[in-house]
Amino acid sequence: MGKKRRRYEQKTLREKKIDFRRHLRTYLVMCAFFIVLNLLTIGSIGWAIWPILGWGIGVSMQAMSLYGPLADPDDIHPREEERGTALPDLEDEALELRELEKRPYRDEDLV
């Protein structure tokens, strides 16, 4: 098992969902970029459909593993169990912002 996979498996469900949202945002921005680039160069959507579909398969599999039929009902890690009940929405947003501040990059750097 690789280091990245081990590190991903150790994340809490909340951290995995934050990663998914970040992945989905990047995917949507890149889809728009591919379409605009394709329209400017060819004038129609030709080759852009292939990276969009290929990447979309990965995004959809990640979504199904968190929210859909592939979701693990026992995907609660000890840190979540210690916390007990779910945090209110405002506290979740504050925690997500703190997580984003810890990143060594900005979303703009990826585009």
Automatic annotation (TrEMBL):
Residues 12-69 form the 2TM domain. It comes from the Bacteria. Keywords: Membrane, Transmembrane, Transmembrane helix. It holds the Pfam family 2TM. The chain crosses the membrane at residues 26-50. InterPro entries: 2TM_dom. This is 2TM domain-containing protein. The lineage of its organism: Bacteria, Pseudomonadati, Bacteroidota, Saprospiria, Saprospirales.
